[in-house]
Amino acid sequence: MSESFFQRNKPFVIAEMSGNHNHSLERAIKIVEVAADAGVDAIKLQTYTADTMTIDKKEDEFYIDDPNSLWYGNSLYELYQKAYTPWEWHEPIFKRCKELGIIGFSTPFDASAVEFLEKLDAPAYKIASFENVDIPLIKKAASTGKPMLVSTGMATVAELDECIRAAKTNGCDDVALLKCSSVYPAAVEDSNLLTIPHLKQLFDCPVGISDHTMGIGVSIASIALGGCIIERHFTLSRDDGGVDASFSLNPSEMKQLVEEARNAYVALGKITYGVSGHESSVGRRSLYVCEDMKVGDAFTEKNLRSIRPGLGLSPKYYEMLLGKRVNRDIARGTALSWDMIG
């Protein structure tokens, strides 16, 4: 696997702003500042308008009539009007990201969004899970030569293969995948994290998670399975409302995620056995002389014991040494060594 923009010496954590700015640029900038303080590596926006996403129709499939949906009672057009980030905000948001030392990038939803983001010199592109079958969009983003992050969502292996091939044959050599469940919020049992190492093996690319579950457990678990990227929706407070607020992390949760994801990554370490790191063999058992002995005395169950610490001979020699005689005087509490015997 070649070096990737998204693969660092720590998990790459992305805070997804989405529509949690609640149509306030001041709040959007505050989200950037608080996310940076929590330790994220990047802020991601979404670049679209209601008109680039759908048509203004309130009936049939254009109306959200599922009472279990967070967005029940809205038409698709109305939802995107509420959720979109005004394009004129992108430049000041990206500027603030740069000032704070984090990466600002976005998800384009059509060709015009890619062209707009190119004018802002966006460093990378994200393809949303519902758009990973939009091959013309993928080709357009790939043609910039920028790194590309793709959420898997409902895509089949064949569809992901087609997506990645389209990206790589149109100028993008750096593609990473995010395992995700395209449900908001997502159930933990639908996470299927075992897909992460399978994706990594199939496509030989960095893999991570776009996590829509509540809490941080699923995100942390992804690291243990080889994930190196975590994307989470982020808000200043769920109580403030917003189209995605109910399944977004708040500042303290994001900070904890960043810290624990890095701990999980460090904890992976390497395959090793025996004494490692800060471990010490002192805490193990070994053979000690537990009564004063004179030269010629024989070892018995009373004067030879397997105890802590572990500075004497291994306990495995205990039965063999019973009845053997010592060649010197030995004080109680002496770690046994071979040169004391015989």
CATH class group of the largest domain: Alpha Beta
SS elements, strand count: 11
Q: What is the domain total for the residues?
A: 2
- What percent of the residues sit in helical stretches (DSSP H or I)? 25-40%
* Mean pLDDT over the residues: 94
Beta-strand residue percentage: 5-15%
Strand order, sheet with most strands: 3-2-1-8-7-6-5-4
Identify the overall geometry. Answer: elongated
Summed up, the helix count is: 11
**How far apart, in Å, are the first and last alpha carbons?**
60 Å
Q: Which value, in Å, is the CA radius of gyration?
A: 30 Å
Low-confidence stretches: none
Main sheet summary: 8 strands, parallel
Topology record:
Blueprint: E1 12-16, H1 25-38, E2 42-47, H2 50-53, H3 76-83, H4 87-99, E3 103-108, H5 111-119, E4 125-127, H6 135-142, E5 148-151, H7 157-168, E6 175-180, H8 195-203, E7 207-210, H9 217-224, E8 229-233, H10 251-268, E9 286-289, E10 304-307, H11 318-321, E11 334-335
Parallel strand pairs: 1-2, 1-8, 2-3, 4-5, 5-6, 6-7, 7-8
Antiparallel strand pairs: 9-10, 9-11
Helix pairs in contact: 1-4, 1-10, 6-7, 9-10
Short description:
With 342 residues, this protein is an alpha/beta fold. It is 31% helix and 14% strand.
Note down, in words, how this protein is organized.
The chain has 342 residues and is of the alpha/beta class. The protein folds into two domains: 222 residues, TIM Barrel (Alpha-Beta Barrel), CATH 3.20.20.70; 60 residues, Antifreeze-like/N-acetylneuraminic acid synthase C-terminal domain (Type Iii Antifreeze Protein Isoform Hplc 12, Alpha-Beta Complex), CATH 3.90.1210.10. It is 31% helix and 14% strand. It is built from eleven helices and eleven strands. The strands form two sheets. The protein has an eight-stranded parallel β-sheet. It has a three-stranded antiparallel β-sheet with strand order 10-9-11, with no helix packed on it. The longest helix is centred in the last third of the chain and has 18 residues. It is elongated and about 100 Å long. The chain starts with 11 loop residues before the first strand and ends in a 7-residue tail after the last strand.
